[in-house]
Design a protein that fits this description.
Layout lengths: L8 E5 L9 E8 L2 E7 L12 H4 L1 H5 L9 E3 L8 E3 L2 H19 L4 E5 L13 H7 L3 E3 L5 H11 L15 E5 L3 H4 L1 H14 L2 E6 L4 H5 L2 E4 L5 H14 L5 H7 L4 H8 L3 H8 L3 H13 L3 E5 L9 H14 L9 E3 L25 E3 L3 H5 L14 E5 L3 H4 L3 H8 L5 E6 L11 E4 L8 E4 L5 E5 L12 H12 L10 H11 L5 H7 L1 E3 L55 E4 L15 H7 L3 E4 L1 H7 L6 E6 L2 E9 L7 E4 L34 E7 L2
Parallel strand pairs: 6-14, 7-13, 8-9, 8-11, 9-10, 11-12, 14-15, 15-16, 20-24, 21-23
Antiparallel strand pairs: 1-2, 2-3, 4-5, 4-16, 17-18, 18-19, 20-25, 21-24, 22-23, 22-25
Helix pairs in contact: 3-18, 5-14, 9-12, 9-13, 9-14
Keywords: Iron, Iron-sulfur, Metal-binding, Molybdenum, Oxidoreductase
Cofactor: Mo-bis(molybdopterin guanine dinucleotide)
Organism: Siccirubricoccus soli
Length: 689
C-alpha cells in the first residue's frame, strides 16, 4: 500500500485517553465540516480500524451544544448560568486573578490543572509551560495508570514492554484485566490474527463477564482485587510441573531460593477460595500456562485500580518472567509504553524551567487540595486560582462530593477551557471554548504501541473556539512569562520538538502519519535483558524507591490484602469498568453513544437480587459513607455473588442525586506512588423507595 489518500481524505490521529492513539483518515466535506472517520491501514498497528466512538466523531465536532464563545459566571457556582464576553476580557480576568492570588499567597497559590481529555503532546502538557515559568504549583498526574505503572516498573524496570504487534505470533494470549473488545479494537485485530493464523488461545481474566470474556476461548471471572492470588497459584503450579525456565531465571532475574519457597506456598485450592474461581477453572488455565511456550501477557489497567493494585500488577508481571516467555519467539509481555519516547520537551513543556523546590500537588487528591487539607497542600498555601484543561473533575475525580465542595468555594477563582458545559465548567468563573483535535495540530504518544502519531489540523475551529496552546500563549503575554515557546505557533513548536528529538520535522511527520520509536523491549531471540540497572527482572521489588507509600508494601510477589473490604454495613464490592460507547465522560453528550449506552444499569447477581427482593429492572440505591446513588438494577450472572458492576461514568444528570458514581470512590492514595482505587468500593444495596 502506498498510503495515498483521496483528495477529500485527511490523515490525522486520535488523541483521546486510550492507548491505541489511532492513525485516522477523516473525510473533509468543507473547511468547517467532516464526514466519516476511519482507521488508517497505513500504520499496521491501527490496521484500518478505529472505535465506533471516533468513527462517529462528526456527532461530537458538530454537536449543537458545543461552547462557542467565552462565558462569565452570572449565577451561583455550579448553577451553570453565564453571560457571553469577549476573548480579550476573559483572558484579562484570568490573568488578573492569577496575579492577585500570587501577590497574596505566593505563586504556588495558582494551580494549572490538566488531565487526559486529550493526550496530545502540546494540547495536554503544554499548560506546564505556564506552570514552570511562573513557579505555579506543579502536578503529579496519578488519576489513571499510576498503580499499574508502578507495579510494572517494580519488576521490569520501566513502563515498556514487548512490541504489542508480536501478539499476532503468540500461541497463548493472556489478556489480564482488560476489555479490548470494548476499549481497544486495534488490539483485538492482532489477537484475531493470531487465533486465525496460529490457532492461538485467548484467555481473558476480569471481575465481570465483559464482552472480551464472551469472545475468549477461556474467560475467568474472579473477585475484584484478588488477581495476584491467581497469578501466584499459576506460578506455583508451573514450579511443581517443572515448567519454570531455570536458565532464564538465573541469567535475567533476581530469582532465589527464598522467592521460590514463597511462591510454592500458594496452592490452587487456596487461590480458588480467595478468588471465587473453581479449582477446575484454575487448573484449566494452569495447563495452558504451563504447556504453551509462546505466551504473550497483555496486562490491562482495570485490575490495578484497587488499593493493592501495584502489588497485583507486579505479581501478574512475574508470570512471563517465570517461564522465560520474553525470550520465546512470539512471547513477551506488554502493558503501556509510557517510557522511552525520547522527546525533547524543553519547548513544548518548558521542562528546562522546572524548579524542584516548587510543591507538587496530587491530581487525584483535588478534593482534598481544594478543601485545604494540609497534607494534600504539602504544607503550602491554599489554592486560590486554577485553569483546568482536558479534565471534568467534578465527575471523574474520586470523592466527587469533596471535589464539588472545593470547586464551589467563593474564594477560588476557576477558569475552565472546555468543548461543552460540563459539570466542572458549571463551577467556573470564566469558561473558554476549546477546539477538538480536528481543529488543531499536535502529536500523540501511542501508549498502546510504539509510534508517535501525527495529528495535523483538518478543519477550521468552531465559532470562537481556541486550542489550549493559544490560551497558554495569551495568558503568558499578560503575565509577563518569558520562554521561547510562548512566541511560537503550534506547528513551530512541534517542528522544533521533533527535530530536537531526532524525528525529522513537522512536514515529514505529517506526510508519514506516524513515527516509529524504538522503545520496545526486544523479545524472542533478540531478548537481552530488562531495563533495570543490572538488566534483571525483580521478583523482589524495591517499593520505597518507587514512591512515598512504598514502605508498607510486601517485598515478594504477594496477594496483598489491602482492599476496601465488604463488611456488615457495606457488604457488596462495586466495580465500574469502562462503557463501550463512553470514554470516561467524553462522548456522553453525543447522540450515538447516548443511544447505545442508555441509562446507567447496576449489574446484580440473581441470587443477591432474590435475597434482597430486587426485581429485574427495579430501582435501587447503593451507597457508603461518601454518598448514595439511585439507579436501575439489572440481574446479571456475569458477576460473582457479592459483586456489583456499573459500566462507565454516566452523566450526573442520569442520577436523581445529581452526582455520579465517583462520589462513592475514596481518594486515599494507592501505594507506592498514588493513584485512585476506582474499582475498590464497598457499598450497601437496597431497593429504592
Amino acid at each position: 500500500m502506498d498510503g495515498s489518500l483521496a483528495p477529500s481524505q485527511i490523515r490525522t490521529a486520535c488523541p483521546h485517553d486510550c492507548p491505541s492513539a489511532c492513525v485516522l483518515e477523516v473525510e473533509k466535506l468543507s473547511p468547517t465540516r467532516i464526514g466519516r472517520v476511519r482507521g488508517s491501514a497505513a500504520y499496521d498497528y491501527t490496521a484500518g480500524t478505529c472505535c465506533a466512538k471516533v468513527a462517529r466523531y462528526a456527532e461530537r465536532v458538530h454537536h449543537p451544544g458545543r461552547l462557542a464563545r467565552p462565558l462569565l459566571r452570572a449565577g451561583a457556582k455550579g448553577e451553570g448560568r453565564f453571560a457571553e464576553i469577549g476573548w480579550e476580557e476573559a483572558l484579562d480576568r484570568i490573568a488578573a486573578a492569577f496575579r492577585a492570588a500570587a501577590a497574596e499567597h505566593g505563586p504556588e497559590a495558582v494551580w494549572p490543572y490538566h488531565s487526559g481529555g486529550t493526550l496530545g503532546v502540546l494540547s495536554r502538557w503544554g499548560i506546564d509551560r505556564l506552570r514552570h515559568v511562573m513557579g505555579y504549583s506543579r502536578q503529579i498526574s496519578t488519576i489513571c495508570v499510576t498503580p499499574a505503572q508502578m507495579g510494572w516498573k517494580a519488576g521490569i524496570g520501566a513502563a515498556r514492554g514487548s512490541d504489542p504487534r508480536r501478539v499476532a505470533e503468540a500461541d497463548l494470549i493472556l489478556m489480564w484485566g482488560g476489555n479490548p473488545v470494548s476499549t481497544q479494537v486495534n488490539l483485538m485485530t492482532h489477537i484475531q490474527r493470531a487465533r486465525k493464523s496460529r490457532g492461538a488461545k485467548l484467555v481473558v481474566i476480569d471481575a465481570y463477564r465483559s464482552p472480551s470474556i464472551e469472545a475468549a476461548d477461556l474467560g475467568l471471572v474472579l473477585r475484584p482485587g484478588t488477581d495476584a492470588a491467581l497469578a501466584l497459584a499459576l506460578m506455583a503450579a508451573a514450579l511443581e510441573a517443572g515448567a519454570a525456565d531455570r536458565a532464564f531465571l538465573a541469567q535475567h532475574t533476581d530469582w532465589s531460593a527464598e522467592v521460590e519457597a514463597h511462591i510454592r506456598g500458594h496452592s490452587i485450592p487456596w487461590a480458588a477460595e480467595v478468588t471465587g474461581l473453581t479449582v477446575a477453572e484454575i487448573e484449566e488455565l494452569a495447563r495452558l500456562y504451563i504447556g504453551t511456550e509462546r505466551l504473550f501477557l497483555r496486562a490491562g489497567v482495570g485490575f490495578t485500580r484497587h488499593r493493592n493494585g501495584a502489588a497485583t500488577m507486579h505479581a501478574v508481571s512475574c508470570l512471563a518472567a517465570l517461564t522465560g516467555a520474553w525470550a520465546k519467539q512470539g512471547g513477551g509481555a506488554f502493558f503501556y509504553a509510557l517510557d522511552g519516547w525520547g522527546l525533547d520537551t524543553r519547548l513544548a513543556w518548558a521542562s528546562d524551567r522546572i524548579d524542584p523546590k516548587v510543591r507538587v500537588l496530587d491530581q487525584s487528591r483535588i478534593g482534598a487540595v481544594l478543601n485545604g487539607e494540609r497534607d494534600a497542600l504539602c504544607g503550602g498555601p491554599p489554592v486560590k486560582a486554577m485553569l483546568i484543561q482536558n479534565a471534568n473533575s467534578a465527575e471523574v475525580a474520586p470523592d466527587s462530593h469533596a471535589v464539588r465542595r472545593g470547586l464551589a468555594r467563593e474564594d477560588l477563582f476557576l477558569a475552565v477551557h472546555e468543548q461543552f458545559l460540563t459539570p466542572t465548567a458549571a463551577f467556573a468563573d470564566i469558561v473558554l471554548p476549546a477546539t477538538t483535535f480536528l481543529e488543531q495540530n499536535d502529536i500523540t504518544m501511542g501508549l498502546g504501541h510504539t509510534a508517535l502519531t501525527v495529528a495535523p489540523q483538518v478543519i477550521e475551529p468552531y465559532a470562537e473556539a481556541r486550542p489550549n496552546h493559544a490560551v497558554v500563549q495569551g495568558l503568558a503575554a499578560r503575565l509577563g512569562a518569558e520562554h521561547p515557546g510562548f512566541g511560537m505557533s503550534d506547528v513551530e513548536i512541534l517542528d522544533a520538538t521533533l527535530r530536537a528529538s531526532g524525528q525529522g520535522g513537522w512536514a515529514e511527520a505529517v506526510a508519514a502519519g506516524f513515527l516509529p520509536v524504538p522503545n520496545a523491549i526486544p523479545s524472542g531471540a533478540a531478548f537481552e535483558g530488562f531495563p533495570q540497572p543490572d538488566g534483571r527482572f525483580r521478583f523482589r521489588p524495591d517499593w520505597p524507591a518507587l514512591g512515598p507509600y512504598g514502605g508498607e508494601m510486601p517485598c515478594l510477589p504477594s496477594y496483598w490484602q489491602k482492599l476496601e473490604w465488604a463488611g456488615a454495613e457495606t457488604p457488596f464490592r462495586l466495580i465500574t469498568p469502562p462503557a463501550r460507547s463512553f470514554l470516561n465522560t467524553s462522548f456522553t453528550e453525543t447522540p450515538g453513544s447516548k443511544k447505545r449506552e442508555g441509562a446507567p444499569l447496576l449489574r446484580v447477581h440473581p441470587r443477591d437480587a432474590a435475597r434482597l427482593g430486587i426485581a429485574d429492572g427495579a430501582m435501587v440505591r447503593i451507597g457508603n459513607a461518601r454518598g448514595a446513588l439511585t439507579l436501575r438494577a439489572m440481574q446479571f450472572d456475569g458477576v460473582l455473588e457479592g459483586v456489583l458492576a456499573l459500566e462507565g461514568i454516566s452523566p450526573s444528570a442520569e442520577f436523581p442525586e445529581g452526582i455520579g458514581v465517583n462520589a462513592l470512590v475514596g481518594a486515599d492514595p494507592v501505594a507506592p506512588a498514588g493513584g485512585v482505587a476506582f474499582h475498590d468500593i464497598a457499598v450497601w444495596l437496597r431497593a429504592a423507595g
